[in-house]
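Attaching the record inline, Q. Sequence:
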Amino acid sequence: MSDYQRIEIGGIDQWRDFHGGFAPGRMRDGRRVLDHELPMQFVGVTANALVPGEEAGYWHAHSSDEELYLFLAGQGQMGLDDDVVDVGPGTAIRVGQGVMRTWRCVPESTEPLRWLCIRGDGGPLPHHPDDAHRITDIPMPW
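Structure, as predicted:
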């Protein structure tokens, strides 16, 4: 028997319908943690959607995870340490360890910001990222 699994996550227009996250109390609409539904060992993936004007509302950084953000639709911005970077369809951003990050869908976007976040750290992936820490004393950059 082959070692593969298949799930349907729907088209990007359906991603906002999901309510999820890594832990109770931190769940939100438009987030689906695919590695909680698939037996992933080394790579984590989330499918995400924010409506115009919505933002993460927090910064965070990872000590060992590396993340790759692949933006598929909408217009947004990422705060990356001291920089604010515009993102949209076709933008790919790799974020290394220790870099503070946050994101938003700009209010003037004509559609939700939708992206995949792929993460890994070179070893077995824990069910909940155990290397992340929220940074709550820095205001949003926009």
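The CA atoms of residues 4 and 101 lie 32 Å apart. The first strand starts at residue 19 and ends at 20.

More tomorrow.
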